[in-house]
Design a protein that fits this description.
heterodimer, A: mainly alpha, two-stranded antiparallel ribbon, B: alpha/beta, Rossmann fold, 36% helix, globular
C-alpha cells in the first residue's frame, strides 16, 4: 500500500493506463471479431500475437529492420496464417459445440508455442530500439508506449472504418448477425470466415510487433494476451465491437491505477478478479452484447 | 420450354424422421405456384433443400436444366434463386440500405441505384438510414422482400409472405408478386392463408408428412378429399 499518492502520480497512471489500454483494445478487437462472426473463442489469439513479436524480433536482429516497419510484414504474414488456420482447422468446429472449438484452438495454441520454442528457443529476447521518455510538465511517457498507442489507435480506427463502411466489412457484420440469411444473400460464408480469422490474426500480430519493443519476447508471452483480450470482450459485451474499445481502455486504466495501491504480484491478479466480478454481476458486458 | 425448376424424388431425413420423402415438382417459368400443407409437412425443409441450406439425402434439383443440389447456398443464389424466411430475417444492426447492399452483386453503383429504386418501390425510402431492427414488423417484411429482388432472381421462394401482415400491406405485396410474374419471374410460395393461395397461385402443391399429396389448380385442390383429410382429419 502506498500512502503517498499525489495528483501527479494519479495523472501519470491514468495516462499509462490509456496508453496500454489502446493496445489491449486493438488486440481484443481481433478476438471479438472471431467470436462475433463464428462464435469461436480463439485460445490461440495470444500465441498469434507472440508470433508477431518474433517476426519483428527476427527481422530486427537479422536485417536490422525498423520494428515499426516490421508491422508491414508481420500483419500480412499472420493474416495468411490466420486464413490457413481457418481454412484447414477452425472451419471444422465452427458449428460444433463450444467445447470442440475451445479444445481445438487450445491445441493450436500449444502447437504454436512449441513451434516457437523449437525455432527460437525459450531464451528471453529483446528488441532494443527505442528507449527513453517524452517529458511533458510533470509527466513522463515511455516513447515506445506512446508510439505503440498511436499506431494501435490508427489500426483500430482503420479496422472500424473497414467494418462500418466497406461492402466486405458489411458482409462480415451481416454474417455475424445471421449466417443463414447472409448465405441466401449470396455471401460466401466460408470466405468471410477466412477473412475474419485472417484480420483477427493480423490485429494480434500488430499487437505482438508493438509490444516487442517494450517487453521481453519469449514463446509463452502470448497466453496472457488471450486472457486479457477475453476479459476486454467480456467487459465490453461479446459481439459488441465498440464495446471492445471501451473494455480495452478500461482494463488498461484499472490495471495501472490499481498498481498504485497494490504490489506488483498482487496487481497481476486484478484482471482475473475483475473477470470473475463482471461475469457474476453483468455477464452481458458493460454496453450489453448480443446474447449467445 | 423446359421447366425452370425440376425437383425429382427429393428426400431429406433428420435422424429417424423423413422430413421430405421422394417429392417431385416441376415449375414452369413465369407462373406463381403455391406450396401448402399442415405444420411439419416439410415445406420449409423443401425450401432449404432447394436453396442449399440443408443438404438433401437423395434426389435431384435442377434449375434451368443444371443440377443445383449439392451446391452451397451462395452458389444457388448466384444461379438466380432468391428466398425469404418464415420468420422475418433482416440484419437488425445494419441499416435498411445496408441490408440491401450486402447482397452480393457485381457493380457497386448499380447496386446503389437498384437499392434506391426498391426502397421507393415499397415506399420506405425515408427509412434507408434506419437500423433494420428499429423498423416495424411490416417494414421489415417489405425490406426482406425487396432484398430478394436486389439481383433480379429468376425464381423467388417466399416463405409465408402474408403472415402477420395487415390487409393494406398484404395487397401491396400481392400486387408486387403479380407484377414480378408479369415480368417473367417464377414464384413459389408457402402460405397458410388459403384466400391468398386461391387468389394468387396458378398451381398448388400439397405436402403432408413429407410427401406430395396432390397437385393442381387451387379450385380443384380445395375440394380434394385427401387434402381436406390431411388438414382436418377424417
Amino acid at each position: 500500500m502506498n500512502p503517498f499518492i499525489t495528483p501527479v502520480m494519479l495523472g501519470q497512471v491514468i495516462i499509462s493506463g490509456l496508453l496500454a489500454g489502446s493496445l489491449y483494445a486493438m488486440v481484443a478487437l481481433g478476438l471479438g471479431l472471431i467470436f462475433g462472426v463464428m462464435r469461436v473463442l480463439n485460445i490461440a489469439h495470444g500465441p498469434l500475437l507472440m508470433l508477431g513479436a518474433y517476426v519483428t524480433f527476427w527481422l530486427f536482429s537479422t536485417v536490422g529492420l525498423n520494428p515499426y516497419l516490421s508491422l508491414l510484414v508481420s500483419m500480412p504474414l499472420l493474416y495468411l496464417l490466420g486464413m490457413l488456420l481457418q481454412r484447414f482447422l477452425v472451419r471444422r468446429v465452427v458449428d460444433a459445440p463450444e467445447l470442440s472449438s475451445l479444445l481445438l484452438t487450445f491445441g493450436v495454441s500449444i502447437a504454436l508455442v512449441n513451434v516457437a520454442q523449437l525455432a527460437f528457443t525459450s531464451d528471453l529476447r529483446a528488441v532494443e530500439y527505442l528507449t527513453g521518455s517524452f517529458v511533458l510538465g510533470p509527466f513522463a511517457f515511455s516513447k515506445s508506449r506512446v508510439i505503440a498507442c498511436a499506431i494501435a489507435i490508427a489500426i483500430t480506427v482503420s479496422a472500424f472504418l473497414f467494418l462500418q463502411k466497406t461492402r466486405l466489412g458489411k458482409a462480415i457484420r451481416a454474417v455475424s448477425q445471421s449466417r443463414e440469411v447472409a448465405q441466401v444473400c449470396g455471401i460466401n460464408v466460408g470466405r468471410i470466415h477466412m477473412i475474419a480469422f485472417g484480420l483477427a490474426s493480423a490485429l494480434a500480430a500488430a499487437g505482438g510487433s508493438l509490444v516487442a519493443v517494450m517487453v521481453a519476447i519469449q514463446p509463452e508471452m502470448g497466453q496472457v494476451y488471450t486472457f486479457k483480450s477475453f476479459l476486454v470482450i467480456v467487459l465490453g459485451g461479446a459481439g459488441n465491437y465498440p464495446g471492445a474499445l471501451l473494455g480495452g481502455l478500461l482494463l488498461g486504466l484499472i490495471e495501472q491505477v490499481s498498481s498504485l495501491f497494490l504490489t506488483t504480484q498482487v496487481n497481476e491478479a486484478v484482471a482475473y478478479i475483475l473477470l470473475v466480478l463482471v461475469l457474476l454481476v453483468r455477464p452481458t458486458g458493460l454496453l450489453g452484447g448480443r446474447a449467445s | 420450354m423446359p421447366p425452370i425448376l425440376e425437383v425429382t424424388n427429393l428426400t431429406k431425413r433428420f435422424g429417424g424422421v423423413t422430413a421430405v420423402n421422394r417429392v417431385s415438382l416441376s415449375l414452369d417459368a413465369g407462373r406463381i405456384y403455391g406450396l401448402i400443407g399442415p405444420n411439419g409437412s416439410g415445406k420449409t425443409t423443401l425450401f432449404n433443400c432447394i436453396t442449399g441450406l440443408v443438404r438433401r439425402d437423395a434426389g435431384e434439383v435442377r434449375f434451368k436444366r443444371r443440377r443445383i443440389d449439392g451446391l452451397k447456398p451462395h452458389q444457388v443464389f448466384h444461379h438466380g434463386i432468391g428466398r425469404t424466411f418464415q420468420v422475418i430475417r433482416v440484419f437488425p444492426e445494419l441499416t435498411a440500405l445496408e441490408n440491401l447492399m450486402v447482397v452480393t452483386t457485381g457493380d457497386h453503383a448499380r447496386a446503389c441505384r437498384r437499392a434506391g429504386e426498391l426502397l421507393r418501390f415499397v415506399k420506405i425510402e425515408s427509412l434507408a438510414g434506419e437500423y433494420a431492427g428499429n423498423l416495424s414488423y411490416g417494414q421489415q417484411k417489405l425490406l426482406e422482400f425487396i432484398r430478394v429482388l436486389m439481383t433480379d432472381p429468376e425464381l423467388i421462394l417466399l416463405d409465408e409472405p402474408a403472415a402477420g401482415v395487415n390487409r393494406t400491406l398484404l395487397n401491396e405485396l400481392l400486387d408486387a408478386v403479380r407484377a414480378l410474374r408479369d415480368r417473367g419471374k417464377t414464384i413459389l410460395l408457402v402460405e397458410h392463408d388459403m384466400k391468398v393461395v386461391m387468389g394468387l397461385c396458378e398451381t398448388v402443391f400439397v405436402l403432408d408428412h413429407g410427401e406430395k399429396l396432390a397437385e393442381g389448380p387451387p379450385g380443384v385442390i380445395q375440394s380434394d378429399e385427401r387434402v381436406i383429410e390431411a388438414y382436418f382429419g377424417r
